[in-house]
TrEMBL record:
Keywords, sorted A to Z: Aminopeptidase, Hydrolase, Protease
Domain ERAP1-like C-terminal, chain residue ranges per copy: 4-144, 175-226
GO molecular function, one term: metalloaminopeptidase activity
Organism per entry: Phainopepla nitens
Gene that this polypeptide is encoded by: Npepps
One GO BP: proteolysis
Superkingdom of the organism of origin: Eukaryota
Name the UniProt record assigns to this protein: PSA aminopeptidase
Amino acid sequence: LPQARAGIISTVEVLKVMEAFVNEPNYTVWSDLSCNLGILATLLSHTDFHEDIQVFVRDVFSPIGERLGWDPKPGEGHLDALLRGLVLGKLGKAGHKATLEEARRRFKEHVEGKHILSADLRSPVYVTVLKHGDSSTLDTMLKVGAHSPKSHFSPLKIPLNSPLKMGIYPHPAPEEVRPQDTVSVIGGVAGGSKQGRKAAWKFVRDNWEELYNRYQGGFLISRLIKV
């Protein structure tokens, strides 16, 4: 993709190569594909090709998503869990119907306390319902965050009507929040729309000192800047 962005090769040829990886089981490969498709989707977000690239993402990621499913399988390793979160998050953000419906169902059960989301599924579910939610979805998220116990982290300056709050204080308890979940939610908001990018960028600027203190010296500060 860097060569395509530089005009050295055709973007169409790059997409054809990506299609060839549809049966690839390796997490690192899918992570790279996801990153590059995300860059391309951002570049096309304000063009007539926006929906086309979303269709392409759904077509490429749906076979691996169907194979992985939503629940861990006996004997699978850590990378399989990471891959599941990556793939479901990608499909959810791209508007894959079955993934969106399941994310909404699991989020509802999570909110109602019927079945608490596992740590590996929290980011893809939150980001999916945020991306395709409405005002009632946002209200529900904020209520969930408001009733969580106080975190040992110092509070960030988050507007009460901001979905970014969920990146810091999700249900059921802030101490269970993984650092990568916070970065993922910020990235999810940033990747959702032009307005989302502006809101996420303002959020990061306003809370830079706290975020930097949390993640300095680790890979997450680099990932935060990239998203």
